[in-house]
Amino acid sequence: MSQKTFYRRRALAARLTKLITQEAVGSAVASGVFLTAPRRTGKSTFAREDLRPALEEAGALVLYADLWKDLTKEPGAVIVETVREAIGRDEKLISRLAIAPGLEAVSVGRVNFNVNKIGLGKEIGLTKAFEALSDETKKLIVLIIDETQHAITTDEGVAALFALKAARDELNSSKHYGLRIVCIGSNQSKLATLRNSSDEAFFGASMVQLPMLDKDFIDWYCKGLDLPHDLDPSDVFQLFQESGCRPDLLSAAADDIRFDFTVGPKAIVVRLAELVRAHAEALNANLRTVIHSLTPIQSAVIRVMGSKGEGFAPFESSTMELYAKAIANAGIATSEPKVEEPDVQLALMALQEKKLVWKTSRGVYAIEERLTVDVLRKDGLLDDLV
Ligand SMILES: Nc1ncnc2c1ncn2[C@@H]1O[C@H](COP(=O)(O)OP(=O)(O)OP(=O)(O)O)[C@@H](O)[C@H]1O
Ligand SMILES: [Mg+2]
């Protein structure tokens, strides 16, 4: 079985490890660190292949929860499971928890303890579980949550984040060995909703923009490409940047020409560029089809959301007027369009179902993907909507 190899970003991992593990006076990292970068640019790969090993090397115990790994699972449950798994791996810890105050004594010898007792509203809450993990391992614990924005779409997910906040504050006291929570996501405004209001779990956490894969990555990538002719990495790097630094686009294009023996050494870079653009276009074309199949009110709502950005307030009277303007702009209304709140409510639900829009359990809305906003803007659908 061939194992996929990755370009290692050691220097970046070392820098972030330092940021996460060291606590400079006045630093906000103890509140949490948010790592963001656009979709498909290598966040999860970096977290798994580079950051996790670097943190472990620095002596931390790393737990990794991917909230998108299984979409049928409640995000809160995924976080709890990650903690259970870490505890389940350590027999000593299990016995420590089994004789925690408030639980029935256990028989000597093999400990009779079920990790399912750990969880939100269970006998052993997350704070207690993390305390045990901290005291037993005597290590700084780093919990990496990939696709964190998913947690705030459900009540249980929000409850898990608040439980983590309590655990974090307890573990960062002088009694234990510290807990750092690293949240990863591609949409900065979604992550910002977790961070910005003082009653949110991660108020004041640091937001770090993860750099894009760089020229060294492209040098490494070109060496391993195995195409009929060599490519100049500078050309490929330019193409990579033009296409949003998404390795998948390059790989899909490279696969298309790998067995094309008709393409000559000079033409290969031109052909690669055409194919990368074609693949990027195909992604946009799918999205355009969805956007152009929306009803007038759904289309108006998403366009107003796109033009308002973070300040979008769905039911304010100025927003309601903008919906009407958007419908009129599109030339689809026969008379002065009238938009009512229930129409907007229904449109928002439909947009969520189509995965164009994301909603927190508290009713804050955002466009699911940055690409959607780019396509709307490119097609002139955001013009004149302020
Ligand atoms: N360092 C790397 N070396 C080789 N390939 C990489 C590297 N980083 C990312 N890739 C490739 O790029 C693609 C996207 O990577 P990844 O899934 O890590 O991105 P992501 O930002 O987490 O995406 P998403 O927004 O979907 O969560 C994958 O096919 C991955 O194999
Ligand atoms: Mg990812």
Total strand segments:
7
Task: Using the 3D structure, state the CATH architecture of the largest domain.
Answer: 3-Layer(aba) Sandwich
What kind of sheet is the major sheet? 5 strands, parallel
Euclidean distance between termini CA atoms:
55 Å
Low-pLDDT runs: 103-111
What assembly state would you assign to the polypeptide chains in this entry?
single chain
Number of discrete helical segments: 15
What does this protein structure show overall?
With 386 residues, this protein is of the alpha/beta class. It has three domains: 10-209, Rossmann fold, CATH 3.40.50; 215-283; 294-378, Arc Repressor Mutant, subunit A. Helices cover 50% and strands 9% of the residues. The protein is built from 15 helices and seven strands. Strand 6 (357-359) and strand 7 (365-367) form a beta hairpin. The radius of gyration is 25 Å and the shape is flat. Magnesium ion is lined by residues 43-44, 146. Magnesium ion (MG) is lined by residues 43-44, 146.
Helices, strands, pairings?
Layout: H1 10-21, E1 33-36, H2 43-57, E2 61-66, H3 75-88, H4 91-98, H5 126-137, E3 141-146, H6 155-171, E4 179-185, H7 188-196, E5 206-209, H8 215-223, H9 233-242, H10 247-258, H11 267-292, H12 296-308, H13 317-329, H14 341-353, E6 357-359, E7 365-367, H15 370-378
Parallel strand pairs: 1-4, 1-5, 2-3, 3-4
Antiparallel strand pairs: 6-7
Helix pairs in contact: 1-2, 3-5, 3-6, 4-5, 5-6, 8-9, 10-11, 11-15, 12-13, 12-14
Bound molecules: adenosine-5'-triphosphate and magnesium ion.
Residues 6-7, 37, 39-45, 186, 247-248 line the site of adenosine-5'-triphosphate.
